[in-house]
Design a protein that fits this description.
elongated, DUF1631 family protein, DUF1631, single chain, mainly alpha
Length: about 800
């Protein structure tokens, strides 16, 4: 019921932050009290109380959230959502300090009750009318002094608070409440009066329970429903009710001229004894979809809940999406009821459920196990069908026969959009089984959000979609293999459980859950950035190594081509000398003095082998003695110590002392396989020699900058979002990483262009999971509509 939600919003807005405002004044009061106390224990008492106050301040955020939850729980109990009988309450012993705490709470409630007695009497009468209208037994005032005192006591149940600090805590709480309760109770009374709940306690209007059909004096026609008179879609007027000519939802309003009773009006009701002038009045307009009429002396309040003035998003994109959704649904929906499979009745014979009724049913089911949604997300059934079946089952439990009710068009849209959204999210991201159960818990809360706030689908900063984005970020690709990943999964699960436990049409819980999860995600994002940086450094290192090897192999090939060389010299050049060239290129570059010295060593050994072949022993000995330091250094760069390097030199000299040893031309060693070949083969089928691409697209790929996102599909059909993390200064290839910072592919512009030509790469990617899922929903609807 929206009027209760508005009262709840006011309560949380004006009272929700009170616990956080008490501590500064209490600290000053403690100092003053101890300063005035001349006893010897005063310093110790001050220390004890200040220590306890410090602990309370550390738990301040938790106290505020617990207090808000306790205040909100009073409204849930008022609406008969979570009422526990005395026999269901846990029994146990409590210590003396807790007894004192409860006594202090009772004293506080009595003091506030006496202070605001007149306002509370008026409020009690109006709330009694509300309970009578809803067919509920008398329930305590959800914002009365007793409830506010209990909420405060329950907030500090787990804290150890000294007596002096406890007295200050309650004293300052009473003082702060006294500042705002007068204004708050006045606003609540005014709100209830505007909504038509202004009757006296002594003569409440006749109000049948909503689940009981009101007998009609006329027999039901072929299009009548047993629930028609109760819910406002039936035939003529009911005795004791005011009819409204042509009205849609005439409600009980004692302030309206001529109103004689409570009713929810028939669509074709004849004019009765009332004199209502609008299309609906009081509670009927609050609960229905019509616009509340204006009673004499009570002008309609624009924008007030239930008046029909709530602004809806006017996004052309959302309108187009709805049209596609309607066409898709018309082509897929069979003319049977989701729950029973029986042929449906004509729409005129079935009453449309009101939004608040569907929200109430969803709230009833919200805390129940979500296995049916988890199975639907796993592919065992359509999620939209599962949602409708669950809502129909919940309606039946509330006394509504699914064969006599139906969802409105807007409600059908909300159910289908949420189902398509969750299906797309789960299918397009690498989510594990644990994430499936987590998402299943959120289905009904998001159905409620979609029913009451269409901006969910058009407002990027909407709290609910920000939380869903954060949960997807935490779960996508997360296998729980590290402590950090497991902590992230646990925090995401806690956020979803908190929404399930606490969401009751107040979006603040989504903001709170998102803030708690986002604090941990900030650390995760930093780890992802570091992971991408490490991947870039590793890739650059491999490219430099590959480039150095190619350059060294080119130099070596020229030395082996001519003249013919002895086996010993050829093996030395192919092994130790080539490795030495690679090391020098990596450490000092091709323009360094050491690199020129290394090249000179190779040329000198080739010349020494020529001298040996000519039998010029003295010249050979002179040349080798001159080369000895350079040869030792070359062998040392391969990791040999001094003695091993001298042994290697002896082997080389031994191969040169025989002038008639065979000398041949030698082939260059095979090129070292590129470390990226196996990775590239996963994406570029057929290798890089058969690339087919548009040169213009290759130029577009060369313009890609770090930070740009792509959508890619490998040769096995696996889709992944990839970000350009780094551009190689050596090869101009792009390093692509996934959303967790892990390397996906290193590819040239031509290779990326060939992927685009094959339809396996798309430029651009929505920045958030929600937007990406909505794009896929649009594509799915567009394809489905095109087929029909």
């Amino acid at each position: 019921m929206r009027v209760l939600e508005e009262v709840k919003r006011l309560a949380l807005e004006l009272l929700g932050g009170l616990p956080a405002t008490l501590y500064p004044d209490i600290e000053e009061a403690l100092k003053t009290a101890v300063h005035d106390d001349d006893g010897r224990d005063a310093p110790q008492l001050l220390y004890q109380n200040q220590a306890a106050l410090w602990v309370l301040r550390q738990h301040q955020s938790a106290h505020v959230m617990r207090y808000r939850q306790n205040v909100g729980q009073g409204f849930d109990e008022f609406r008969a959502l979570r009422i526990r009988n005395r026999g269901e309450l846990p029994l146990g012993l409590i210590d003396e300090s807790q007894i004192d705490f409860h006594l202090a709470g009772q004293n506080l409630a009595e003091s506030l009750g006496h202070r605001f007695k007149a306002m509370l009497e008026q409020l009690r009468g109006r709330l009694q009318v509300v309970t009578t209208v809803l067919g509920l037994p008398p329930i305590p005032n959800p914002v009365g002094p007793t409830r506010l005192a209990d909420a405060f006591v329950e907030t500090f149940t787990d804290e150890q608070i000294p007596a002096a600090l406890r007295a200050l805590l309650f004293g300052h709480y009473e003082r702060e409440l006294g500042k705002v309760l007068g204004e708050f109770y006045a606003q609540v009374n005014e709100l209830l009066a505007r909504s038509g709940f202004g009757g006296s306690v002594e003569q409440p209007p006749a109000a049948p329970a909503m689940r009981r059909p009101i007998p009609s004096p006329a027999p039901a026609g072929p299009t009548d429903s047993p629930y028609a008179d109760t819910y406002g879609h039936g035939g003529g007027p009911v005795p004791g009710q005011a009819g409204v000519a042509g009205g849609q939802s005439a409600g009980w309003n004692p302030d309206a001229a001529g109103a004689t009773g409570y009713g929810m009006g028939g669509q074709g009701g004849a004019a009765g004894t009332g004199a209502g002038t609008g299309t609906g009045g009081g509670y009927g307009a609050e609960m229905g979809h019509g616009t509340a009429g204006s009673a004499p002396g009570q002008p309609r309040q624009p924008g007030h809940p239930g008046t029909g003035d709530r602004a809806a998003p006017t996004s052309a994109e959302l309108g187009e999406l709805r049209q596609m959704l309607h066409a898709w649904r018309d082509g897929r929906m069979a003319p049977t009821t989701p729950a029973t499979g029986a042929p449906v009745q004509q729409p005129g014979s079935r009453r449309e459920l009101r939004v608040d009724e569907v929200v109430s049913v969803a709230s009833l089911l919200q805390g129940e196990p979500s296995d049916v949604f988890a199975r639907a997300l796993a592919g065992s059934g359509r999620l939209a069908t599962a949602i409708r079946d669950q809502l129909n089952d919940g309606s039946r439990r509330l006394g509504l026969d699914p064969e006599h009710i139906r969802f409105s068009g807007d409600e059908e849209d909300a159910i289908d959009l949420v189902a398509l959204l969750f299906d797309s999210l789960f299918q397009s991201h690498h989510l594990q089984d644990r994430a499936r159960r987590l998402y299943a818990r959120l289905v009904l809360p998001f159905v409620k959000v979609a029913l009451t706030d269409q901006s969910l689908f058009v407002q990027p900063a909407h709290p609910a979609r920000r939380l869903l984005d954060a949960i997807t970020e935490a779960c996508a690709g997360n296998k729980g293999e590290t402590p950090q990943e497991r902590e992230l999964l646990d925090r995401a699960a806690a956020a979803s459980q908190r929404v399930v436990a606490e969401y009751n049409e107040d979006l603040a819980i989504f903001e709170t859950a998102h803030a708690e999860l986002d604090a941990l995600l900030q650390q995760q994002r930093r780890r992802i950035e570091l992971q991408a940086e490490r991947a870039a450094k590793a890739t650059f290192g491999r490219e430099r190594l590959s480039n150095a090897r190619e350059q060294a192999d080119s130099v070596l090939a020229r030395r082996l081509a001519a003249p013919p060389l002895s086996r010993g010299v050829a093996e030395f050049l192919t092994g130790s000398w080539r490795h030495h060239l690679v090391q020098v290129l990596l450490r000092e570059g091709g323009e360094s003095e050491r690199y020129r010295e290394a090249i000179a060593l190779g040329d000198a050994l080739v010349d020494a082998d020529r001298i040996a072949s000519e039998g010029r022993g003295r010249d050979l000995a002179t040349r080798l003695l001159a080369l000895q330091p350079a040869i030792i250094a070359c062998l040392g760069s391969s990791g040999l110590d001094h003695s091993a390097a001298e042994h290697g030199l002896a082997v080389l000299v031994k191969g040169l002392i025989y002038p008639h040893a065979p000398r041949d031309l030698h082939d260059a060693p095979p090129a070292t396989p590129d470390d990226d070949d196996a990775e590239r083969g996963l994406w570029v089928a057929g290798g890089t020699d058969t690339l087919r691409f548009d040169p213009a697209m290759a130029e577009r790929m060369r313009a890609l900058e770090p930070g740009e996102w792509l959508q890619m599909t490998d040769i096995h059909g696996e889709s992944v979002d990839a970000k350009v993390a780094w551009v190689s200064p050596l090869t101009a290839r792009r390093l692509l990483v996934n959303r967790r910072g892990l390397r996906v592919l290193v590819a040239s512009a031509e290779e990326l262009a060939s992927l685009h030509a094959a339809g396996r790469l798309q430029l651009g990617c929505e920045p958030t999971a929600f937007e990406q899922a909505m794009r896929q929903v649009r594509q799915q609807l567009d394809r489905a509509v095109g087929q029909h």
